[in-house]
Amino acid sequence: xxxxxxxxxxxxxxxxxxxxxxxxxxMEVVVYDAFPEGLEASKLFHAQYASLFQKSLGASAEQIxxxxxxxxxxxxxxxxxESADLxxxxxxxxxxxxxxxxxxxxxxxxxxxxxxxxxxxxLPSDFVDSIxxxxxxxxxxxxxxxxxxxxxxxMTHATTDPxxxxxxxxxxxxxxMVPIVLNKEQNGYVLNSILGPMLSSALDLVEKGVxxxxxxxxxxxxxxxxxxxxxxxxxxxxxTIYNVERHWGETNNDxxxxxxxxxxxxxxLDKGKLGIKTQSGFYDYPNPAFKxxxxxx
Length: 297
Fold this sequence. Notes:
The chain is α/β, with parallel strands linked by helices and 297 residues long. It has two domains: 5-181, Rossmann fold (3-Layer(aba) Sandwich), CATH 3.40.50.720; 196-288, N-(1-d-carboxylethyl)-l-norvaline Dehydrogenase, domain 2 (Orthogonal Bundle). The chain has helices spanning 13-24, 36-56, 61-69, 77-81, 95-106, 162-174, 191-207, 213-222, 229-236, 238-251, 255-267, and strands at residues 5-9, 28-32, 71-74, 86-89, 114-117, 137-142, 151-155, 178-181.
């Protein structure tokens, strides 16, 4: 199956990146978000990516114009799914929200459409009961800054059609990704199975009052890593980090993860500090403290 038209569900940080990258590689893309402000945020992201691609990645003005012309935006789900060959779901990392979205989607989507989840921690099998064609459903997870960190993790569930998996692998390659194919379901896939515990441990230290978050990042960077845990969290988005910590805190009755989630809610989310996308998270942007030449001294 040759994929020509793609619908991105969710105009947040990663959904907007997938939309831009896919349109840049020549496919028609519609961005769906339930809220008009979500679409406005996605358009702002795309303006930033246009500048980034020209200044840092060598894209021509003609390529940027063509990319923009392949992008459209809507809050109408029925219109968004029309003629879509593939849907990439990037709604909030909350099982209830995702299940409700899949139920609404299943009532409208073509029987031939492939549905993929860009969930960072949840499993395809968690949602098969909400989808009317589970054999055409699987996970395709991207990393932030997908044009640079271009892995695409492909994870099926027990009844995914093998041909659909191959179509998704081909799609990932077509938009410049390196497919990482998992042999079985695993929460966190490959990337977040490694990254997630590190970020959670960093939050543990700060929530317990052991150390300031900047000291954690300084330690990590002095040890030879280009970005500290809290810098990474700002890029991912603090809403996502909060949802993951709360989900696993509730699932595993983990009091520390629940405390981490509450810490994020009180000190950041409730104050509108969601990370880079709001210009404020653990750091303030566009001139965060870690850019100071003295940060590692």
